[in-house]
C-alpha cells in the first residue's frame, strides 16, 4: 500500500465512482484507515448524491433523521455534535450534513467533481481497471468501487410528443438548483410514488391548479413529522450505542422491534387498536405491528384495508378516495411513501386527480397532457416518474470485464452477483449496495456502511496476504442467486409491478433486485464469508493463477 495519496492518477490503488453517502465513507476508509491512494470521480459539482440532485419541493428522508446518518463507525464526535431539526430531515439539511462530513474529514481534496464516468474496462494482463470519463481522461486503478447509488438514473417515460411541449418541464431527480416558482401556473404532475407524494402538497399550495396523473395508487403512511426537541435529541444521543446495534440486527436496518405475533392471531378489534397505535406514531412503525405482513396474503390484507380506510376517512369525495385506495397489490409490495398532508390535498379545489390506468396518457402535446379522455392544458409538467433503479446507473458506466464482457450483457437475464457486491468475470470490482444486497430494502446508511466496511476489511486482508486479484467463483455466484430467488419467493414482494422488480422500465428484466433476507441475516453471511478467508472468492497473487 502507498503511504500517501498518489498524485499520479495512473497508478491508483482504488477508484471510487460517486460522492454520496457511499463514496464519501468509502474514500474515508480507503484513504484514512487503510492508507491507500484513492480517488473519487463524481458527475455533480459537489458531494451529496441523492441529496444533491433531488431538490424538488417537499424532498426529505423517510428514515428518521437520527438514524438516516453515518453511525459511530464514522465518528461518535460527529454524532454528538450534529443535531437534526426535524424528525424527517429536509433535502437542504441532509445535503448540509453530507457537506459537513466532507469538510470534517477533508474528503473533497480527493474527489474530482464534474467528472462523468463513461467506461470502465478490466485489463486482465495488467490486473487493473481503466476508467474513461466524458472529458476524455483515462485513469487506471487496481480496484474499482462503484458508489453510484440505487436511485440515480432518472426515468423519463418516452411519451409520444414529449419534446413538443412548449411549457417548462422538470424531472424531480434533476431539479433546478435555483428552484421553481409555480405561482399562478397550471401544473401537471405525472407520478404518485414517494416523490410525487412529497411534492404534490407543496406545489398545490403555490400553483393555480395541479392535475395529478396517477397510474397506481400507493398505501401511503402518515409520516408524523415534527421538530426535534432538545429532550428528544438528548435521549437519542444517549441511546445511540443501542440504536446502532439494533439497526445492524433488524430486517430493514431500522432500530424498530417487530412484534412476535401474526396478524390473524389477534381478534379484529385488538388488531385495529394495534394498527391505530402504530399509525399515531407515524413512519414505518405500521410495518412492525405483526411479523407476517410481508409473508401472508390474508395478514397483509388486514393492514391494506386499515390503510384504505384511512384514505376514505380523509378524502371528502368518495369517488376520489376510491381512486386513491390501492386494490391491485398487497401492502408494502411497492415501497409505501410516507405522507404529510398528501390525502387532504385532494380536498382542495385546485387539485384534480386523473386515473391514467383507466385512461392512459396518449401523448404530451405542445400545450399539455392528452389522455384517452381528453387534453389537460398546463403551463408546466413535473415528471415524478422515478428511476431506472439498481442497474440503470451501473450499466451507464459502460463496465466491461474479462474478455470484453459487458456488465449489461452478463446481467441481461437479471443480475448475477455474489452477495450483491461482486460478480464473476469482473475481478477487483466491488459494487456498493448492488442488486441482490439489502440496499433499497433497508435504511440505506446502515447497509452502505456495512458494504464499505466489508470492502475495506477485504482490501486489508488482500494486502496482508499479498493478493492482487479477487473474483467470485461461478459456483458461489450461482449459490447466491439461488438463495436470493428462494428468499424472494417466500415473500409477497414480487406480486406488485414496482421498481423493486424493474417493472417501471419497459423491457427491463423482471426479478426482485434488492435482497429481502434481512439486513442482520445478510451481515452475518458476509461476516462468515470473510471469516472463512473470503469463501466463494478466488484470490490470486500477482502473475499467479493458483489461489492464494
Ligand atoms: P447516491 O446518493 O445516489 O450517490 C451516487 C453518486 O454517484 C451521485 O452523486 C451521482 O452523481 C454519482 N454518479 C452516478 N453515475 C456516475 C457516473 N457515471 N460518473 C460519475 N458519477 C456518477 N434511503 C433511505 O434509506 N432512507 C430515506 O429516507 C431515503 N430517502 C430518499 C429520498 C429520495 C428523494 C431519494 C431519491 C432516495 C432516498 N433514499 C433513502 C435512497 C438514497 O438514494 C440513499 O439513502 C442514499 O442517499 C444513497 O447514497 P449513495 O451514495 O449510495 O448513492
Ligand atoms: O419513483 P417511483 P419515486 N406513465 O418509481 C409513475 C425513494 N424516495 O421517485 O406506480 C404513468 O416510486 C409510477 O406509476 P406506477 C424511495 O425508495 C424516497 O416516487 O409505476 N405513470 C409512479 O407513480 C422511492 O420508492 C423518498 O404505476 C408513470 C411514479 O411515476 C424511490 O425513491 C422520497 C409512468 C414513480 O414512482 C422512487 O420514488 C422520494 C408512465 N409511463 C423517493 N412511469 C422518501 O420519502 C412511471 N410512472 C424518503
TrEMBL record:
Its cofactor is FAD. Belongs to the FAD-binding monooxygenase family. This is NAD(P)/FAD-dependent oxidoreductase. InterPro entries: FAD-binding_Monooxygenases, FAD/NAD-bd_sf, Flavin_mOase-like. Pfam families: FMO-like. It comes from Actinomycetospora straminea. Keywords: FAD, Flavoprotein, Monooxygenase, NADP, Oxidoreductase.
Amino acid at each position: 500500500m502507498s503511504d500517501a495519496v498518489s498524485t499520479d492518477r495512473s497508478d491508483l490503488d482504488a477508484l471510487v465512482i460517486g460522492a454520496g453517502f457511499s463514496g464519501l465513507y468509502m474514500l474515508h476508509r480507503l484513504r484514512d484507515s487503510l492508507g491507500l491512494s484513492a480517488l473519487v470521480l463524481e458527475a455533480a459539482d459537489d458531494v451529496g448524491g441523492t441529496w444533491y440532485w433531488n431538490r424538488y419541493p417537499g424532498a426529505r428522508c423517510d428514515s428518521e433523521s437520527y438514524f438516516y446518518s453515518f453511525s459511530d463507525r464514522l465518528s461518535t464526535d460527529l454524532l454528538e455534535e450534529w443535531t437534526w431539526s426535524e424528525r424527517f430531515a429536509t433535502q437542504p439539511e441532509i445535503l448540509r450534513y453530507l457537506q459537513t462530513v466532507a469538510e470534517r474529514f477533508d474528503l473533497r481534496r480527493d474527489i474530482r467533481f464534474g467528472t462523468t464516468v463513461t467506461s470502465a474496462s478490466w485489463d486482465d494482463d495488467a490486473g487493473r481497471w481503466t476508467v474513461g470519463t466524458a472529458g476524455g481522461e483515462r485513469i487506471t486503478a487496481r480496484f474499482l468501487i462503484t458508489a453510484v447509488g440505487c436511485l440515480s438514473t432518472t426515468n423519463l417515460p418516452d411519451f409520444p410528443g414529449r419534446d413538443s411541449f412548449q411549457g417548462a418541464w422538470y424531472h424531480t431527480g434533476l431539479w433546478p438548483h435555483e428552484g421553481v416558482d409555480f405561482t399562478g401556473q397550471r401544473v401537471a404532475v405525472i407520478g404518485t410514488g414517494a416523490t410525487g407524494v412529497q411534492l404534490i402538497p407543496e406545489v398545490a399550495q403555490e400553483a393555480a391548479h395541479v392535475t395529478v396523473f396517477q397510474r397506481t395508487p400507493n398505501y401511503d403512511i402518515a409520516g408524523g413529522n415534527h421538530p426535534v426537541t432538545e429532550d428528544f435529541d438528548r435521549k437519542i444521543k444517549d441511546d445511540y450505542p443501542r440504536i446502532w446495534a439494533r439497526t445492524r440486527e433488524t430486517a430493514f436496518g431500522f432500530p424498530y422491534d417487530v412484534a412476535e405475533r401474526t396478524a390473524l392471531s389477534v381478534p379484529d378489534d385488538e388488531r385495529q387498536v394495534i394498527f391505530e397505535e402504530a399509525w399515531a406514531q407515524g413512519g414505518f412503525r405500521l410495518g412492525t405491528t405483526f411479523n407476517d405482513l410481508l409473508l401472508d396474503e390474508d395478514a397483509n390484507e388486514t393492514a391494506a384495508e386499515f390503510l384504505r380506510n384511512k384514505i376514505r376517512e380523509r378524502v371528502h369525495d368518495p369517488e376520489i378516495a376510491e381512486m386513491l385506495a390501492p386494490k391491485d397489490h398487497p401492502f408494502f409490495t411497492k415501497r409505501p411513501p410516507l405522507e404529510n398532508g398528501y390525502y387532504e390535498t385532494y380536498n382542495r379545489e385546485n387539485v384534480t386527480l386523473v386515473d391514467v390506468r383507466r385512461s392512459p396518457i396518449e401523448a404530451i402535446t405542445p400545450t399539455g397532457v392528452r389522455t384517452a379522455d381528453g387534453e389537460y392544458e398546463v403551463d408546466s409538467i413535473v415528471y415524478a416518474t422515478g428511476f431506472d433503479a439498481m442497474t440503470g446507473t451501473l450499466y451507464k458506466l459502460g463496465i466491461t470485464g474479462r474478455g470484453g464482457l459487458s456488465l449489461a450483457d452478463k446481467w441481461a437475464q437479471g443480475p448475477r452477483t455474489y452477495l450483491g457486491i461482486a460478480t464473476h468475470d469482473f475481478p477487483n470490482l466491488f459494487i456498493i449496495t448492488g442488486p441482490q444486497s439489502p440496499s433499497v430494502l433497508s435504511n440505506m446508511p446502515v447497509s452502505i456502511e456495512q458494504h464499505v466496511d466489508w470492502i475495506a476489511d477485504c482490501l486489508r486482508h488482500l494486502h496482508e496476504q499479498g493478493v492482487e486479484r479477487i473474483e467470485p467463483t461461478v459456483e458461489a455466484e450461482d449459490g447466491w442467486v439461488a438463495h436470493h430467488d428462494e428468499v424472494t419467493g417466500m415473500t409477497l414482494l414480487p406480486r406488485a409491478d414496482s421498481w423493486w422488480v424493474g417493472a417501471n422500465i419497459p423491457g427491463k428484466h423482471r426479478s426482485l433486485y434488492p435482497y429481502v433476507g434481512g439486513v442482520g441475516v445478510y451481515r452475518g453471511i458476509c461476516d462468515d464469508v470473510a471469516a472463512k478467508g473470503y469463501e466463494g472468492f478466488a484470490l490470486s497473487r500477482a502473475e499467479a493463477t493458483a489461489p492464494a
